[in-house]
Specification:
Number of helices: 11
CATH superfamily: Divalent-metal-dependent TIM barrel enzymes
Distance between the termini: 17 Å
Number of domains: 1
Largest sheet: 8 strands, parallel
CATH topology: TIM Barrel
Oligomer: single chain
Shape: globular
Helix content: 40-55%
CATH architecture: Alpha-Beta Barrel
Number of strands: 10
Strand content: 15-25%
CATH class: Alpha Beta
Length: 292
């Protein structure tokens, strides 16, 4: 299990080379490339050689790219915009392959109001078509896609959306080719829609759950902060991961923790994040011994 965190916020603050230096010095072992930072990447486009240079420099510093996150949203009611969304995802899969990324997170389509009559089934059909259309690119570039559990706003309240319940998430994954499609559980998202996070993990099981987005929330706002700065019960989450024999990496998505801080404070914030991640990973290891 590798300790990983998103690369985008650090790259935006420091530039890619200094960001890799800072993340390596902080104690991370892997990076999650943030293709969802489309405005930044469009303003600072990266070529294939750039991606290869980033990968090589990261390797020099003892880091690999274990994961990536495709641009989102992945769908729109406008057919023209919808096609643009699809093309952006395909581009991110191709570029992820330059970094040696094995898994890229691709949000499910969720442009319909999830709680609308009949919409969960419509969205299921749309998503099956969407993900199966991406499968040839997975095969071409040797990159798996991880689906993620989502949420939607209804007024000011956060509500259920696509894959936000374990039963539906499992249905999606079981309806797709397991060779190329796996699950990424976003811990904060599950907590926001009032799902029992440890129960969610146990219902998914190790065969489906292959990636994580680890971050904390207060249950009201999707703040993406560091564990122990919100209300998620982390001991129960680590115990559930140990119980199912989780074999994926420990990937943060907690950049909200240092959002708004001066760049000078970023290295110390990253060190604290890495220390927190290692602490939680030790908990998983300790619980695994109990379940053997």
């Amino acid at each position: 299990m590798l300790l990983s965190t998103p690369f985008g916020s650090s790259m935006k603050c420091l530039g890619w080379k200094k960001a890799i230096d800072a993340l390596s010095a902080a104690g991370f072992e892997a990076l999650d490339f943030s293709f969802y930072m489309t405005k930044y990447l469009h303003a600072n486009p990266l070529s294939k050689d750039d991606f290869l240079n980033i990968r090589a420099y990261a390797a020099e510093k003892g880091l690999v790219f274990n994961q990536a996150h495709a641009p989102f949203p992945t769908s729109d009611a406008d057919p023209v915009k919808n096609q643009q969304c699809f093309e952006e995802v395909v581009k991110s899969i191709r570029e992820a392959s330059y970094l040696g990324v094995p898994i890229i997170v691709v949000h499910p389509m969720q442009h319909l109001t999830y709680l609308g009559e009949g919409n969960p089934e419509r969205l299921f059909e749309m998503n099956m078509e969407f993900y199966n259309a991406l499968k040839p690119y997975c095969e071409e570039y040797n990159v798996k896609i991880a689906l993620e559990n989502m949420w939607q706003h209804r007024g000011k309240k956060i509500m259920h959306s696509v894959c936000s319940r374990p039963e539906e998430f499992n249905r999606y994954l079981d309806s797709l080719d397991r060779e190329w499609f796996v699950g990424c559980l976003d811990v904060g998202h599950a907590f926001l829609v009032c799902e029992d996070v440890d129960g969610f993990i146990e219902k998914m099981g190790t065969d489906r759950l292959k990636a994580l987005h680890v971050h904390d929330v207060d249950g009201i706002v999707d703040s993406h902060t560091l564990p122990y700065y919100g209300n998620v019960e982390w001991d129960r989450v680590m115990k559930a991961l140990a119980k199912i024999g989780y074999t994926g990496d420990f990937t943060f998505e907690a950049d909200g923790f240092f959002a708004g801080n001066p760049d000078e404070l970023l290295p110390s914030a990253l060190r604290h994040m890495a220390e927190t991640g290692k602490y939680l990973m030790r908990k998983i290891e300790a619980y695994q011994k109990e379940y053997r």
